[in-house]
Design brief:
The complex is a heterooctamer, with 2 copies of chain A (182 residues), 2 copies of chain B (79 residues), 2 copies of chain C (247 residues) and 2 copies of chain D (360 residues). Chain A is of the alpha/beta class and 182 residues long. Chain A has a single domain (2-177), classed as Pyruvate-ferredoxin oxidoreductase, PFOR, domain III (Pyruvate-ferredoxin Oxidoreductase, domain 3), CATH 3.40.920.10. Helix content of chain A is 40%, strand content 20%. Chain A contains 6 helices and 6 strands, in the order βαβββαββαααα. In chain A, strand 4, helix 2 and strand 5 form a beta-alpha-beta unit. The mean pLDDT of chain A is 91. Chain B has 79 residues and is an alpha+beta fold. The two termini of chain B are 20 Å apart. The radius of gyration of chain B is 13 Å and the shape is globular. Chain B has one domain: Alpha-Beta Plaits, CATH 3.30.70. In chain C, 72% of the residues are buried. Chain C has helices spanning 24-38, 73-83, 95-101, 103-111, 152-155, 161-166, 182-200, 215-218, 222-236; strands at residues 3-6, 45-48, 64-66, 88-94, 117-122, 171-178, 205-211, 240-244. Chain C is of the alpha/beta class. Chain D is α/β, with parallel strands linked by helices and 360 residues long. Chain D is globular. Classes of the chains: A alpha/beta (182), B alpha+beta (79), C alpha/beta (247), D alpha/beta (360). The D-H interface holds D 4, 6, 31-32, 115-116, 172-173, 176-180, 261-262, 264-266, 268, 337, 339-341 and H 19, 22-23, 26, 31-36, 38-40, 57, 59-62, 64-65. Bound molecules: thiamine diphosphate (2 copies), iron/sulfur cluster (6 copies) and magnesium ion (MG) (2 copies). The site of one iron/sulfur cluster (SF4) has 11 residues of chain C, from helix 8.
Chain lengths: 182, 79, 247, 360, 360, 247, 79, 182
């Protein structure tokens, strides 16, 4: 059973990342839960969700001791660093989160997702790049599954957008696999 | 008879600013811009373009920016 | 000599607001705090915050504040004011709070001429709960419960509560203003001052309805949201003094 | 001592409330308790600093009481069953906001519109909290005119002491009936303990907040446990029950309010028939006098719960006993008032059925 | 079989309701259940004969449901704790008028405004009747996504079968969470049993009355006993509980809804530690599965009630057991969601304290 | 040949009324029954009786009748009508029922333009509960909760709900009539007919407010009670068509 | 041209009548009086003064009495 | 312990009779309860109340098996005749209730109270005449106690009215004591 937190600002597509990942994992035949955080915090604040993927029944969908965190903003790092499971892995969008982790028992993987997205010609795919990297790193699902998940969720999606998303996923995965890590 | 325009100055608390840019939209003298830096909350705060001792200060201290600022992020000083 | 000519008013605590960027609530908060300060009533004012985006108003206003259940602020304020007639009591309510669930309490408080001041923030939606249709939502306006836009036949047309209240004998002063522009902000402050003065003079129920931008739920930029008030909202809810018994 | 007066129950509550320092009443008409707001409308008008408001609804009334209580007043509202249902959100708020207030429920037959006859159908609602969340309401159950006066006074005292809503659970018969009553002396408002939490303008002190919204779950948990500790304290301090002919009893009837009154009659008759029967009457319904009942179970193996409903307090009796004795039930819902004779028959039938006549 | 879909809980309820033939929904926004009315607003609009109304209040909503039910529709409303308090008068009317309806309570922390975190603070209100009078509401407690679908379908079925309001008691976590769900097939509205009591104009038959006012106490008593017989029948027919690892258990946790889900996790961990622990999960909260618990008490001497509140269902467990076994409690109010680990610790601590490890 | 020209209408059951001598409720009942008969809608009409003196209205009307909680008739009727749009749905409500506890439900039903007919019996008091002040009680009028007469400062002035409702876009037809004289009774019947026709035509919310004598609580003879309506009640509540969108 | 006035007749159900006497107050021809007898409910019902075959019948069958009778106690016949 | 029901139409002063009697008995030192009937019946209907007087605690104030009934109207007789205790006594205002009792185990006392009142010059004292007769017959209280009760209840009563009331009481008592019974 693996717990992942996706966290950032509203508008960064954070919830979408988690949702697509959860659908992908479900179609892979796993047990999954997806829990968005909701609060009286007004919009424009933080957004985050927790996805649990498991081969067995999932008891608690909440973000206690997550194994992974995909962090898109500084406040999110602040919020989640403290509750990570020992040895957990934090994937950071390093263009938004420059500071290093304070906990030494965690691994961090820094992905300059905004830069990479710009290279691809659209800042819109920042989340796909992070998701691609996440999938490649954790091997919890495949990029194909994610693409299937995407088309299941977003009906009538523009083929060119789909293509761009795929590019984003690929670029993120590549970044991990090619060992571009700083 | 020319009235000597008052000189003004504002201080924007970048921690409070949420980047709504209403101040920019109302400043008659275009003294406010969007900062390149983002703050703790992820907003790019508004930034005052003039300094206290700068030349050609345009800000009159009219306080329109502060008046519309939803986050009370602006203090206004006037000579 | 340089002087500080604009800063946080005395009766606003130092806490940063939790509102969205460009939200009218926080402008209105500041205006109310300024008016309280200028009228010198800060240490005898009691506020009744709503359920709504401004539910945490007590974290901002530095006066005594007591929470009311959703929609019942006018009844709670009635209880307070009847016990402490020399204090200044105001409610702060959203359009959903006041014109949907709180319809009866508001109308009857006005009708009894309760000597309280009601600040009615009309942002044409349920902000706090995520942008559902409010009684004030404009025809055609999309919301999370009117995905196809508000439809007169299914959902009814927007309700003009202030006009209804004006029909009661107890309502002494009712004005509709907005906080979408400097001009309107200044007018709003004047209106708020007048409303509190009406209460201080014991003349009766005063209410200021304030059209307020909600960029988040309107899904607009902050500047466009302000513009929408001028161009659209005021068509249904024109800015004006709706009732003035002080003249 | 004040003079004995023949007074209508609803007026007794009103008079006693005012003597207890109640200065704010808001209510909405509903039979069978209209005489209470009617009395209050006149009484408050002739009282310095007294406020009576006929609210536009029960909901408005309870919320006015919230406001008056925030402002420091001893405040009261009253209604009957359907109207009390409407007040549940407000009562939950009173509990959460830790505001004192007195709520009178002159119960009638139900559910729905029901009828206006005396009933005890709202026991669950009163004692379990008809509103939402973890909270409790102190519930006092007067059984006769004098107690209407005495428990009304107590209600205000408890409300202030524990900063919590207190309900007086009466029924239409009690509200309508006239009985001789000696009213308590008026309290001196100036000698009541100060309330260092009221909202009266922040003059010379930091501003105050009264609120129940606690978004942070840890803070909310803390608040809930704080309330829970208070409820525990109340449960330790105020449970009260009265007994009648229980010394040698082999069967003890448990009944409250009007039912208890009738039960006394039934028991007297049963005694005349030679049956060893007694009564335990809970005066506080919450906190329930568990200990008194548990202790009695050492000698008594059969309890008969008698209620004017289909069986609600019986849960609390069973919870008090946890299997230690047999718990039987006799009840009639819908506003039927059993007679003492009828009850005597029910008692004797049970008595023989359980073979309690045997030499003991 | 329908396809497995990853769906948000509130949407599952909505979809399942429509498939169960719900054609009328009225509600008022309140977090954490807004997604349900939002879903309904779209779904009903695209459904022939479907009505969605965003009511002006919770009270208006429940009364609209009363009307729609009188007119024969399968009707639903939903809210969260404070809003459910406001519906209590209406729910009492539904019960008294013998009208089917489904009410969803997505509970949040309370009392008062509380917070929007998942909680189980409204157990008493739901199971004891927060409204006035002798009545009961069927209460179903789903514990995961699939059950949200299945029990929603059941809720409409029970409501019609027994002509009584049925409550689905969920919490914010269930409402917000997405899980894989297989939706049931839509019912064919034409094959549902006829309702020979609806108000649809007296064409060709004598006019009908649906009312709850019964001024005559004898008639009211009769009506109450009639309802009581119905409640008895329901208590015989539908109680349901699920067990997990109870075969050899020395300690059985009793929990429902989200708490039960967490309890399974805690129990699994406890089993890994070698503790013989199981779970009994009431699926119906009223009628409470008393028999299942009582039977289990023949083998199990220690029960641990686990609730997300300060202890409410524990009463029903004690009432089921009447002293036959020990009843312990672990709970956290105010929207705190315990973790399986935390629960495992609470379990093991109790296990050793009760000395259950001993060879058995 | 002698012909029976006036008798109990078809949709009134044979039961004797429980109302006090000279009570307007029973006149209004008869008129409604006559209109239902004349419009030929008796077998598709569903009535929603109130809590109030007319709580037993279902014992008199020979059409389907479903009870609403006090004040909520318009919401119940909304539920019925939305499910059965081809049936005719009316509510029958007292002034306390509709203008106090039911304020919100009534206003919002009107605002949504629910296609129902509301019969609003204004007898300026709470009849059933024994003559307390109603929202419509006149200034100075004594009631059991205004023993010194209704006082504007303490109790507020009478509320004119019909005028408020007229401000909603959904209200199609609103008229105020009385049943204190032959002339007014005839007008009331016409108004009721029009209201039901508005519903039959699907035009929207229709409401007839009927000033009705309550000799018991007014503590007057039946004839004086009728006179009071002309001389006093109509001063505050003038008889007229308040809104007519059918023209 | 004189119009021959119509002849009418009413029947008062004395069990239904509650003695409000509104009928008496509206009858243009004073054909109704208060009965000396009281009915089951203790009211003295209204009583029609004319008989079917009586002479000088004043009742025109105008039905005003029935129109205002709150208790539907009056039936009206007209020739 | 004695239960008495007072019953008649609204407006006949029935509730007043019971109330005055109860106050009188209380001042005599007895335990008393007074229970007015209340119903959704509109005004102009029936009115009745039950007074219980006892030397001991009173358990039930309701009108089950009353010992006495003071009956002012035909429907009241109908309503109460059936529930009287065996051997109970019914005092009838014979000007309003002409029919005989149907139960043979009850005693009835017929008082032409309206006639007697007319003799005294005011129909207003019908209830006082009945009450005087009731007191004289049952001896449960004295006419003086009743007069005291009256002045306790009705503040600022006109002395001439008081005199008239006294006359009514006397006349009623006299009617019983002089054996005028028909
Ligand atoms: C009884 C009850 N019902 C519903 C809610 C949920 N709720 C909180 S605020 C609100 C309305 C918010 O809209 P509005 O009053 O317009 O204020 P805004 O957020 O737009 O400023 C609602 C429905 C509640 N807290 N209590
Ligand atoms: C929730 C609730 N509150 C109060 C009542 C009591 N009640 C019944 S009818 C009524 C008002 C009667 O006045 P009105 O509506 O004017 O009708 P009227 O009797 O005058 O015709 C009241 C307050 C009730 N039945 N339910
Ligand atoms: S004070 Fe006036 S001129 Fe200066 S920055 Fe603000 S708006 Fe511009
Ligand atoms: S108005 Fe205030 S919050 Fe908005 S951008 Fe300017 S300084 Fe920032
Ligand atoms: S949702 Fe709208 S009203 Fe609420 S804080 Fe955001 S902008 Fe303001
Ligand atoms: S109390 Fe008034 S409204 Fe009610 S029945 Fe009597 S006269 Fe009619
Ligand atoms: S109007 Fe009708 S009830 Fe009144 S007196 Fe005449 S017949 Fe009788
Ligand atoms: S029908 Fe006309 S004339 Fe005849 S009794 Fe009636 S009112 Fe009089
Ligand atoms: Mg709003
Ligand atoms: Mg009325």
């Amino acid at each position: 059973m693996k717990k992942t937190v996706f966290a950032g600002f509203g508008g960064q597509g954070v919830l979408m990342m988690g949702y697509v990942f959860a659908v992908a994992a479900m179609r892979d035949g796993k047990e999954v839960t997806y829990l968005p955080a909701y609060g009286a915090e007004m919009r424009g604040g933080t957004a985050n969700c927790t996805v649990v993927v498991s081969d067995e029944e999932i008891f608690s969908p909440v973000a206690s001791s997550p194994d992974f965190a995909v962090i898109m903003s500084k406040p999110s790092l602040l919020k989640y660093e403290g509750i990570m499971r020992e040895g957990g892995v934090v994937l950071l969008n390093s263009n938004h989160v420059s500071r290093p982790l304070t906990r030494e028992d965690l691994n961090s993987i820094r992905i300059p997702a905004v830069e990479l997205a710009k290279e691809l010609g659209s800042e819109r795919v920042v989340n796909m790049i992070m998701l691609g990297a996440f999938a490649a790193y954790t091997k919890m699902t495949s990029l194909d599954s994610i693409m299937n998940g995407l088309s299941e969720i977003v009906k009538d999606i523009n083929p060119s957008v789909m293509k761009l998303n795929r590019k984003g996923l690929d670029r993120g995965a590549e970044y991990i696999l090619k060992g571009d890590l700083q | 008879m020319t009235v000597k325009p008052k000189k003004g100055r504002i201080v924007i608390d970048s921690r409070l600013c949420k980047g709504c840019y209403l101040c920019i939209s109302v400043c008659p003298n275009k003294c406010i811009v969007i900062s390149e830096e983002s703050n703790e909350k992820g907003y790019h705060p508004a930034e005052f373009t003039e300094t206290k001792d700068g030349k050609d200060r345009a800000c009159t201290g009219c306080a329109l920016c502060a008046c519309i600022c939803p986050d009370i992020a602006i203090e206004v000083y006037r000579e | 000599m340089e002087k500080l000519v604009f800063t946080r008013p005395r009766y606003m605590k130092k806490a940063p607001f939790h509102y969205c960027p460009g939200c009218g609530h926080s402008i209105i908060h500041r205006l109310v705090a300024e008016v309280i300060d200028e009228l010198g009533i800060g240490d005898k004012t009691i506020g009744v915050p709503p359920a709504g985006c401004a539910v945490l108003a007590y974290d901002y206003f530095d006066v005594d504040m007591g929470e009311a259940p959703h929609g019942r602020a006018a009844a709670v304020a009635t209880g307070i004011k009847r016990i402490l007639p020399d204090k200044i009591v105001f409610t702060y309510q959203g359009d959903g709070d006041i014109a949907a669930i709180g319809t009866a309490e508001t109308i009857h408080s006005a009708n009894r001429g309760e000597n309280i001041t009601v600040i009615f923030v009309n942002n044409s939606c349920y902000g706090m709960t995520g942008g559902q249709m409010a009684p004030t939502t404009l025809l055609g306006q999309k919301s999370t419960t009117t995905p196809g836009g508000r439809n007169k036949d299914r959902d009814g047309a927007p309700i003009d509560l202030s006009q209804m209240l004006a029909l009661t004998q107890g309502a002494a002063y009712i004005e509709r203003t907005a906080v979408n522009s400097i001009k309107n902000i200044i007018k709003t402050k004047k209106a708020l001052t007048k409303a509190f003065k009406v209460q201080m003079a014991g003349i009766g129920f005063s209410l200021i309805e304030i059209l307020s931008p909600c960029p988040t739920n309107w899904k607009m930029s902050t500047v466009d949201a302000c513009r929408r008030i001028d161009e659209e909202v005021t068509q249904t809810f024109p800015l004006k003094v709706i009732k003035d018994e002080t003249a | 001592m004040n003079k004995k007066l023949l007074m209508r129950g609803s007026q007794v509550i009103g008079e006693a409330a005012i003597r207890a320092g109640c200065r704010f009443y808001a209510g909405y008409p509903i039979t069978p308790q209209n005489e209470l707001p009617e009395f209050m409308s006149g009484a408050m008008a002739s009282l310095e600093g007294g406020t009576f408001i006929q609210a536009e609804s029960e909901i408005a009334a309870i919320n006015m009481v919230i406001g008056a209580s925030m402002a420091g007043a001893r405040a009261m509202t009253s209604s009957s069953s359907p109207g009390i249902s409407l007040k549940q959100e407000g009562i939950s708020f009173l509990a959460a906001l830790e505001l004192p207030a007195v709520i009178v429920n002159v119960m009638r037959g139900g559910p729905g519109l029901g009828n206006i006859a005396p009933s005890q159908g709202d026991y669950f609602q009163a004692t379990r909290g008809g509103g939402h969340g973890d909270y409790r309401t102190i519930v006092l159950a007067p059984a006769h005119g004098q107690e209407l006066a005495d428990l009304t006074e107590k209600a205000f005292e408890y409300a202030d002491r524990y900063r919590t809503p207190v309900m007086i659970l009466a029924d239409g018969m009690m509200g309508q009936m006239m009985e001789p009553v000696i009213l308590p002396d008026p309290v001196n408002l100036d000698t009541l303990p100060p309330k260092p939490w009221v909202l009266d303008g922040a003059q010379g002190r930091p501003s105050r907040i009264i609120r129940s919204l606690i978004l942070d779950t840890v803070g909310m948990e803390e608040h809930n446990w704080k309330l829970e500790r208070k409820y525990k304290m109340i449960s330790d301090e105020i449970p009260r029950a009265e007994t009648y002919m229980t010394e040698d009893a082999r069967l003890v009837v448990i009944a409250y309010g009007t039912a208890a009154r009738i039960a006394r009659g039934g028991i007297k008759r049963a005694r005349e028939m030679g049956l060893k029967v007694g009564l335990l009457r809970p005066v506080t319904l919450w906190p329930f006098p568990e200990r008194a009942i548990r202790e009695m179970s050492r000698l008594v193996k059969d309890f008969m719960v008698f209620e004017m409903n289909t069986g609600q307090m019986i849960d609390d009796v069973k919870l008090s006993l946890e299997g230690r004795s047999n718990v039987h039930f006799y009840g009639r819902p819908g506003g039927v008032v059993s007679t003492p004779d009828e009850l005597a028959k029910a008692i004797s039938s049970l008595y023989y059925r359980q073979n309690l006549k045997k030499e003991g």
